[in-house]
Amino acid sequence: MEQQRLDKIIASTGKWSRREAKELARRGLVTVNGAAVCSVEKKFAPEAVEISVNGEVLSYRRVTWIMMNKPRGYLSATEDGRGKTVLDLLPRELQRQKLFPVGRLDKDTEGLLLLTDEGGLAHALLSPKRHVDKVYYTRTKGRLTEEDCQAFAAGMSLPDGLQCQPARLEILLADKESEARVTLREGKFHQVKRMLAARGKPVLYLERVQMGTLPLDRGLARGAFRFLTEEEIAGLRALV
Q: Which of 40, 72, 94, 200 is paired with 87 by a 20 to 30 Å CA distance?
């Protein structure tokens, strides 16, 4: 097992900075397997020892994966001077963990958003070469038709020059306002909205409901989040 400096292990939880870890250790409030450790420069294998800070046993994660049910009004970014970001919905200890969104949802798009600190897997999930489906529920203005489905399946060329890979459009309701599921294997800027607008059916509402085999947890309220289970993380790895 890889050994890491004690202050790095403590800081990885997001609850304390390295400087705070050093001060807590100096005060005798950091223990490893029940024994006080005064130097945070010592190295340990975090999975092999029990580390406590001020009486709290640490729950160590080598990597962090979070599912959020993103609400409208938040930007999918780590920081942005134009408004609130999805990180603002997390508690302070998680904001300090350098998490980032896996892909982007528009400010007014809701639904499944993953956040992590594991760059390699995040990049792989977003790569068009990996063919990881992103599934959306949408409501549009105008009646969707079989011709729209065929256009999506063929791979659309948009008026602005974007060449889209073949995608799936499944009509759930065809009316003056239609409902559908859209499945993409890429995620260009505003792509679902641009594709439907090119068919004369502008989007009224958009929600991401699934990524690969991972569906949005409907037990999560808008703006809420939870950690992925080990099984769910393994499922993401299996996709790539």
A: 40
The residues near 182 (Cβ < 8 Å, ≥ 6 apart) are: 135, 136, 138, 152, 167, 168, 169, 170, 192, 195, 196
Could you tell me the residue range of the domain that residue 45 belongs to? 4-57
DSSP 184-222: ES---TTHHHHHHHHTT--EEEEEEEEETTEE--TTSPT
CA end-to-end distance (rounded Å), the chain:
25
The pLDDT tens digits of the residues spanning 147-175 come to 999 999 999 999 988 899 999 999 999 99
Cα–Cα distance measured from residue 221 to residue 26, given in angstroms and rounded to the nearest whole number: 42
45 in the same domain as 157: no
Task: Say if residue 209's pLDDT is above 70.
Answer: yes
Q: What is the domain-level CATH number for residue 32?
A: 3.10.290.10
What is the per-residue pLDDT for 12? 78
Q: Which of 7, 80, 88, 106 is catalytic?
A: 106
Average pLDDT over residues 75-83: 81
Q: Is 106 a catalytic residue?
A: yes
